[in-house]
Structures are given as structure tokens and as C-alpha cells.
Amino acid sequence: MPITEILEENCRKFGNDVCLVELNPEIQERRHVTWKEYELIEPNPSNYYRREITWNVFNEKANRFANLLLSRGIKKGDKVGILLMNCLEWLPIYFGILKTGALAVPLNFRYASDEIEYCVNLAEINVLVFGPTFISRIEEIVENIAKNRILFYVGDNCPEFAESYNELTANCSSISPDIKLTDDDFAAIYFSSGTTGFPKAILHKHRSLVHSCRVEQNHHGQTKDDVFLCIPPLYHTGAKMHWFGSFLVGGKAILLKGTKPKAVLEAVSAEKCTIVWLLVPWAQDILDAIDSGEVKLEDYELSQWRLMHIGAQPVPPSLIARWKKVFPDHDYDTNYGLSESIGPGAVHLGIENIHKVGAIGKAGYGWQTKIVDENGEDVKQGEVGELCLKGPGVMTCYYNDPKSTEEVLKDGWLYTGDMAMEDEDGFIFLVDRKKDVVISGGENIYPVQIENFLRAHPKIKDTAVIGVPDARLGEATMAIIELKDGENCTEEEINEFCHKLPRYKRPHHIVFADIPRNPTGKIEKPKLRQIYCGESVVAKQNRG
Prior knowledge:
Number of strands: 28
CATH topology of the domain at 4-230: Rossmann fold
Strand content: 25-35%
CATH architecture of the domain at 4-230: 3-Layer(aba) Sandwich
Number of helices: 17
Shape: globular
CATH superfamily of the domain at 4-230: ANL, N-terminal domain
Radius of gyration: 23 Å
């Protein structure tokens, strides 16, 4: 079953129910657009605090864009790029692309012009849909990418080098195009996060997308009555595939622009959200805001909030201990996955396993796992090796990159590049990225273990540990530490705190600075290595 059939089914069952709400806390004047008004006007998103659409409107918008693409000669197998900030138009555009049989290609909204051009060429994009934020970036490269490509602009004041999505779709049919799709048709190309260099193009079929719907709903039991708060960028699998669990059962989603604690809690309260997926920094910010008195929980209606879950990175147990003290009635879960495994859920802790916080869990619904050594042989329980995944959500390949594909796909198994170990109860613990392991004096040191330890310090907001060149040891560990607002700390305090660590794990160097993270919450360690030891990304990759 192609994933577009789920949208059609939701339209038949729940057509007049609101399915998507966009909230923009930066808008001071609380102007709202209901789904009835949405059909009568084309609102400028920057002027409205709240916009909503129903399943009927969602499906009609998707159909209009699909028919526009078909009228321009787009066919099954073509590629359509999406370069938009989170907005109410995003998902109808995505599904409109899929309805044509073309592949949706979401692009990271942080990409600079050269990165946009690189990805457009790598994925062989035929059409690029972009929004106001990206006009200047597209203008820089338009002469290089416009030839034989269509550029659609979503928003007011369309630039001369593009065509207006709003005007053109308004005149297109809202009837679903008659394009036959199957599980085995290609559906999307997602780009890797790029934390280890230029991103790779990850090819998935409809089968993968539908499996991610089933995985998420199986793990978190979404019902029609659940309301999912979506904060992360929709271009990434982490946000969209968590939403897919609600999508499968016709549940409502709230698209929140912004991550400030007040905005998150206000959205949960006003929209009666029951499920919230957070990144580690956002969860920490909420707790810090509560501790400082910046926000007061009694100002919000939060009793309906049943589940907080986290993914995209190792989760410090100390953070969840703090969270449960403040929100004792919340279920907690963590999920592990990669864009190569169609996002979250390939490994899953489970809300019933809170006693195992720190682990990423066991194989998720429909997935298999194994941990192997450098020769591909299973390691013994308790030993560290590379985590491998197998299941219906594994990518087809890295598009136009057979060499990289061969390196990570072996006999149906996806080699993740993540180092992990399995405990005596069968729970998997993420140790570190294979390329981030520090080899110091012949010892393998896993930075995540040191980072989790340091985050328990009451003055530390965030931290990252990297290896820096050392004449005697080969590499030595450096801890970059970001302090909580208003806190002061010395290197001596950190060294004293680290006496509880084995000597070889204690950081050799301490630096107080901000921690750069990408939009999916992952620490940008290549950037840190370039800053603090001048090491190029390529050099680190080659050494790994």
C-alpha cells in the first residue's frame, strides 16, 4: 500500500476534522485562520499566529499540486525538492508530489547556497519548491540550477526567477490524479544530516514510509484522539515519521514554529497536546526555565499530556531523572534510528522500560538488530561493536553513490556506524559514533560516556567531547562545556567533579564555549574539531 492511500482514507473517514494546525509564536497579534477561511483566502503565513486545515483541505491541496506537476510534464520517477520552513503548506506539497509518482526530496533549511546546489544536482531534482526565507540563497545559484528545472515559490511577492505556487495551484483540479502506485515504487530521497561531511542522498520506497507509520503507532499507541506536537524540521525523518503514527489513525498534529519553553508549554496547553517529541536541548531548556521560575506550570493546562519522548542522540539518564521529578505522570520513551532506516523506531526502549533509561532499547516493531566486530562477526554480550539493522525500512541505496552504498549495506543489513553494546537483559546501549571514538594511548574512549557524566553537573547545560592531537598519547580528550545561563565555573571545579571517572576517561583539556548542534539536535563534532584542532572532516573520516 502506498502511503498516499492513508491520506485518502483519512479524507473519507474524517474529512471535516481539523488535522493540521500551524502556530507561530513570533506573531504578537493573535490572528487565526480557520479551515473555512483558508478556502476563501490565501493567507500570508507571516501575518497569522494560528492557521488550520481539515483532512479534506489537506487532500485537496495535495491534489491541486499533484495536478500542477503533471501539467508540467512531471512523471513517475522524477524528483521534486522541498525547501521550506515548517508551515501548513509543507505536508500537502509533500503528498502532492507522491501522488504523481514522483519522489519528494526535502532539503535542510540551514543549507547554504552551495549546499543547495550540491543536493539539487546529486538528487537530479526536476522541480524545486521554496519559500521566502530562501530567496537570496536561490538567487545566488539560480543561473546554475534553473536550466531545465522548474522553480515554484510559496508565499507573497514571488521573485521574477520563479513561478507562484499559490496562484498556479488555485486554478488546478482538486480531484486526485489517477496514478497507480505500489509499495515498490520509489517515494522519497532524504539527505543525511551531514555531521560527517557533505550529505548523502538516501533513497526510500513507499514500503519504507508505510512501515514507519506502523512502527510509530505500534510503539506509542496513538489514537484518533491524540494530538501530536511537532517541533523539529519536517525535512528530517525524525519529525515526520513520529507524526506518521498520528497520520495512520487520523490524529491531529500541531506544527509549532520555535522551541522556547514558554511557546512549547503554551502550545501543549492551548491545543490540548497529548504527545510531544523533544530533542535533548529542548527538554533541558524546559526544565531550566521551570527551575529558574521563568515559567510556572500552574499557568498551563498540562494534565492531558501523556507521553514525552526523545530521539536523535544519546539521552543522559540524569536528564530523564529530572524530567520525571517535574512530570511524574508522563510516560517516557526513546527511539533510535537513522534516515537510512527511515527515521526513528528501529530500536525502541518502550514506556514500560523506564528502569533502563540510558539504553536505546531493543529491536523495534518489524526490525532486527545485531552488533558486530570489524570482521562482521557478532560480538559477545557486553562487548562494544557496530550496530546493524535489518527490516522493511532500510533504504534502497545512497542515490548515485554505489561505493558508499556498498560500505553500509551488506546482505540486507544496514551498518549504522554507531558503536553499541548489549547488556545481560538484551537492551542496547549506544556508545558513540564509530568516527567519533577517541584513541588515546591505545585505549578506545567513547565520548558519549564522558558527556553523559558531565551533564549531571548542576552548572552544565551541554557538553561535547572530542579528540585532539597529542604528541605522547596520539589523541587526548577535550571537553567543550556550555554552562547554564548565569552560572560561573572553573576548570578546577570540572576536574574535581571528574575524579569519579576512571583516570583514562578524564578530559585532558577543558574549554568553556557554546555547543553547536544541527536542526535535529546532533552535536556538530566536525565543526568542533575544525575549531579546536584544525582537523578536516575528510581526515577524520579517513582515520575512522
